Amino acid sequence: MAEAGATRDEILAELQREEVAAYDIAVVPLTVMIDGVVYHDGVSITPSEFIEKMAEAKALPTTSQPSLGAFTEVYETMPEDVDSAMLVGSIFLRY
Questions:
Q1: 41 burial class (0-12, 13-18, 19+ CB within 10 angstroms)?
Q2: Which of 48, 18, 50 is nearest to 37 (CA)?
Q3: What DSSP string runs through 33-95?
Q4: Does 35 reside within a domain?
Q5: d(Cα 10, Cα 64) in Å, to the nearest integer?
């Protein structure tokens, strides 16, 4: 029986796919916009593709947090034997 579930929302997260699968971590992707094209971190763009596109970009990429609906969808699809869930994330500030 699973006692806890975890989600993660960090861009280009350090967790490898093997770790995500081994610990059954649900990843909610951040949105990355590069030259007007929207990507979802880890879904439609890989870290190496991000680096390549960033090097060629006309402007710095922008990011956006996942929507409330994206988190709700993940939490609603967690197995019924999960007693609790936690969110692991980071806060980025611009000065």
A1: buried
A2: 50
A3: EETTEEEEBTTTB-HHHHHHHHHH-SS--EEEPPPHHHHHHHHHTS-TT--EEEEE-------
A4: yes
A5: 11
Between CA 71 and CA 42, with CA 62 as vertex, the angle to 5 degrees is 50
Q: From its phi and psi, is residue 22 left (phi > 0), alpha (psi between -120 and 50) or beta?
A: alpha
The 10s digit of each residue's pLDDT in 45-66 is 888 898 899 999 999 999 888 8
- Provide φ and ψ at 75, rounded to 5°: -65, -35
Say if 76 falls within a structural domain: no
The pTM of this model reads 0.65
Using DSSP, state whether 17 is helix, strand or coil.
Answer: helix
Q: Say which CATH number the domain at 42 has.
A: 3.40.50.10170
